[in-house]
Write a structure and sequence with these properties.
With 333 residues, this protein is α+β, with helices and mostly antiparallel strands. The chain has seven helices and 16 strands. It is 24% helix and 34% strand.
Length: 333
């Protein structure tokens, strides 16, 4: 740490060029022969106090423990293919509020998505005299609901320091909505299961499909329509789902995506001490591109709902699951 114009500046990068003072203090003695003889006689009871030498990791630990990172402002969500409206603004300062100049910060942000796997990229930033820096994100070419993380840049592989770096880090939302046309055709097929784990089929009973289609309409994707591919969805077979969908729509190019999922009881229906019905569901949702069959994303969700009415508890749980599914779709297509 050094003082520059009244402001405390620190560097969190370790390198061979940094010089650390290793201090070792030893006691010296100037004693008379008599004292020396007494000392030798009582040497087995004598204790020597030695100050432990500091290491580069000690100094880095001290710096990290006294540093805080704050996201001053972040841009609003954007859509796929459109730049964020503003940069992310970050401040680095000591715990007592003194700005830190010349600190290297790493920004880690989503850089790619393949089904349920998300990759991240890193960019180095350096704070100015006021302890501030900005991160201008690249134009996103895929939709996602995620975050960007800012943390001190260090070269040490010490697990303790790496963990300490994570505790100093700051996050901000990285939300990119789909740029899919609001009228683009989306086939929706979600299979419901009873408490015994068997598919609920027949009599047009598709409560989760209907709830998800309604949630997509509410989010602005007005081209969503109910469909039924329960056997293929039950098998979680994307190739079969694509084939079923193509047979259903024929050559209608309006339909671009198929959204599919499964909703099961995580636990048997029960009542709590207050007499409320407790419904716990678990589910998975995925989406594929109809023309290519490519799976765009997959995600798992769970909900738990209470209600005095058993019917309302089940209905509310299904609707909440549909809301979570719809959010994945809005930030996944």
């Amino acid at each position: 740490m050094k003082k520059n114009s009244g402001k405390i500046c620190i560097s969190l990068i370790m390198s061979a060029s940094l010089t650390f003072a290793l201090v070792s203090c030893e006691s010296t003695k100037h004693e008379s022969p008599k004292v020396e003889r007494e000392t030798e006689k009582n040497s087995e009871n004598e204790k020597t106090s030695v100050q432990t030498a500091r290491t580069p990791d000690d100094d880095l630990r001290n710096l990290l423990e006294n540093t805080q990172i704050t996201v001053i402002s972040s841009p609003k969500e954007t859509t796929k293919g459109k730049a964020f409206s503003a940069p992310y603004k970050i401040r680095v300062e000591t715990l007592n509020g003194k700005p830190c100049e010349g600190v290297s910060i790493t920004a880690e942000f989503p850089s790619g998505r393949d089904a349920d796997s998300v990759s991240f990229e890193k960019k180095a930033l350096v704070t100015d005299a006021n302890g501030n820096c900005e991160f201008v994100p690249p134009v996103p070419n895929f939709s996602i609901k995620s975050h960007v993380t800012f943390f001190p840049q260090i070269s040490s592989s010490n697990p303790e320091l790496v963990k300490l770096c994570q505790s100093v880090s700051a996050n901000a939302a990285w939300n990119v909505r789909t740029n899919t046309n609001s009228r683009a055709g989306i086939l929706v097929s979600v299979v419901d299961y009873n408490q015994d784990g068997k598919m609920i089929i027949g009599s047009g009973s598709q409560p989760s499909t209907q709830s998800l289609t309604a949630a997509l309409w509410k989010s602005g994707l007005m081209g969503a329509q109910n469909a039924d591919f329960h056997n293929s969805v039950n098998a979680d077979d994307s190739a079969r789902i694509q084939a079923d969908a193509k047979r259903l729509v024929g050559g209608n190019s309006t339909f671009r995506f198929v959204v599919y999922g499964r909703v099961k009881y995580a636990e048997k229906l029960s009542q709590d001490e207050a007499g409320n019905w407790v419904v716990s569901l678990s589910g998975d949702v995925g989406a594929l591109e109809l023309s290519s069959g490519k799976v765009l994303f997959k995600a798992r969700k769970s909900v738990s709902v209470k209600n005095k009415s058993q019917w309302n508890a089940i209905k509310n749980a299904q609707e909440e699951m549909a809301r979570l599914f719809a959010e994945e779709i809005v930030y996944g297509l």
